[in-house]
Design brief:
Layout: E1 4-6, E2 18-28, E3 41-49, E4 55-57, E5 59-61, H1 63-67, H2 78-92, E6 101-105, H3 111-118, E7 122-126, E8 148-149, H4 155-161, E9 166-172, H5 181-191, E10 192-203, H6 205-210, E11 223-224, H7 227-234, E12 239-247, E13 253-260, H8 268-279, H9 285-311, E14 316-319, H10 323-332, E15 339-340, E16 349-350, E17 357-359, E18 372-375, H11 381-392, E19 397-400, E20 406-408
Parallel strand pairs: 6-7, 6-9, 7-8, 9-10, 14-15, 14-18, 15-17, 18-19
Antiparallel strand pairs: 1-5, 2-3, 3-4, 4-11, 10-13, 12-13, 16-17, 19-20
Helix pairs in contact: 2-3, 4-5
Bound molecules: ligand DWN.
């Protein structure tokens, strides 16, 4: 596959009326941390389909470029680990099988699977990252060893898995990464056992626009789903939406429960959430122009704030070498003094596209003066605030920039 393939048709409804929402220019890959020699840049532009209002990138970077050597560990966040515990409880309550067979697509470091295994389930993970197969790396929890097949999910790979069937199929923060989501769901339908459930969690595009979450736009995220566009896509598959839940994780997400269409499911949540999206003007081009303007204001305000800190001779550092942080710092055109992160695989490297080093949080203990700490992983603000306090007490200013630039002074931080 060529490294970058332009998209001309809607990924959800196959429409051809794609219009630009936000063009972030040529950006580096968000997780391509480097040690001096930077990786390639590719166009990063969010489009919206004027037929079904599905958000999608203007082009696709080959998955092999982004996911086969993958530094991100979802289990680093305690908050996300708690979220996963909740998911296993919900999922097991959806099936009437004593020892469910569980498939986790995009299983990352296997933490979710380890929870299902602890609950007595038979588990299998699928993930293209070669640096994670069957091993637990860097996560701050006990070592586990779960079976993982290294592959990108597709109906072709699903047919290779047959005759295995699964009562529960989970896909957290991977469905939006799929170049062909209809094929992704067809694969799920192929290996879904009778009475089984598919649980898919994706960021909610409504929250992206309502919260000005521009930095969640990056090459890994090919799709930006609304309930409407997700429902439109599901119509092209053998599955049906049985339930929808709004979630706070990752800046606001949706959890869809899908069942085989013959199982006759309908949920009032689809209609209710479609109405919420209409009320939030998700089908109004003017709303997307307003979003673009607000993102430009964030950049102006952030640059002013950093300039003021630097004029006072103060350090400006980051907490969380997040993919979104890569987008933000490159969009702002700013280098921080350094970024701290609890993921060892990211240490002693530099933010993609920048010269900003990534270092262990313990370095914070050696900073004598109050710091300006930009919370690049703003979706974990409370958890990171606690981490900073545990390392340095309450003397630093925390800075966030979505939905707008805000300074949390030490007494409030
Ligand atoms: O879709 C995706 C989302 C779910 O996760 C992936 N394609 C990529 C990734 O995006 P991200 O890197 O922006 O996700 P996070 O979870 O917001 O990244 C948090 C970063 O902050 C990680 O590098 C870990 C770090 N962190 C930390 O160092 N200490 C996070 C917490 C909570 C902490 O206490």
């Amino acid at each position: 596959m060529t490294p970058f393939t332009p998209v001309t048709r809607c990924r959800s409804c196959l429409g051809e009326r794609l219009t630009s929402v936000l063009d972030l220019g040529h950006m580096p890959l968000a997780n391509a941390f480097h040690t001096g020699t930077e990786g390639p840049r590719y166009p990063l532009e969010l489009m919206v389909c004027e037929d079904c209002w599905h958000g999608q990138l203007s082009g696709v970077v080959a998955g092999e470029e982004m996911f086969t050597d993958y530094p991100y560990r979802s289990s680093v966040s305690r908050t996300f680990r708690e979220h996963c515990r909740g998911l296993t409880t919900v999922a097991r309550g959806l099936v009437s099988v004593e020892r469910p067979r569980v498939l986790d697509i995009g299983c990352n470091d296997g933490f979710l699977l380890s929870l299902f295994r602890e609950a007595g389930c038979e588990v299998l993970g699928v993930d293209p990252a070669l640096n994670m197969k069957g091993r637990w790396i860097d996560a701050p929890v006990d070592r586990v060893d779960v079976p993982v097949e290294n592959a990108f999910w597709s109906v072709k790979f699903a047919s290779w898995l047959l005759p295995r069937k699964f009562d529960i199929i989970t896909a957290q923060n991977v469905f939006a990464h799929a170049p062909d989501p209809a094929d992704f769901l067809a694969g799920c339908a192929l290996v879904l056992a009778d009475g089984g459930a598919v649980l898919i969690e994706v960021p909610h595009a409504l929250e992206l626009f309502a919260g000005n979450e521009f930095d969640t736009i990056y090459h890994e995220h090919l799709s930006y789903f609304t309930v409407s566009s997700f429902a439109r896509l599901v119509e092209r598959t053998p599955l049906a939406i049985a339930d929808i839940t709004r979630l706070p994780v990752h800046g606001g997400s949706l959890r869809f429960v899908l069942r085989r269409r013959s199982d006759d499911y309908y949920t009032v949540a689809v209609g209710a959430l479609k109405a919420v999206e209409r009320a939030q003007r998700m089908c109004d081009p003017a709303a997307y122009r307003n979003f673009r303007f607000k993102v430009q204001v964030i950049r102006r305000d952030f640059l002013r704030l950093v300039e003021d800190c630097r004029k006072r001779g103060e350090k400006v550092i980051g907490y969380g070498a997040a993919a979104k942080g890569t987008v933000a710092l490159n969009y702002f055109g700013v280098d921080l003094d350094y970024v701290v992160d609890d993921t060892p695989l990211k240490w002693n490297k530099r933010i993609p596209g920048r010269s900003t080093p990534v270092v262990p949080p313990e370095l914070l203990k050696m900073e004598p003066k109050p710091l300006n700490i930009v919370v690049l992983a703003w979706n974990w603000l409370d958890e990171i605030r606690q981490r900073v306090r545990s390392l340095r007490g309450n003397r630093d200013r925390l800075i966030t920039y979505v939905p707008e630039v805000r300074c949390l002074e030490p007494e409030k931080a």
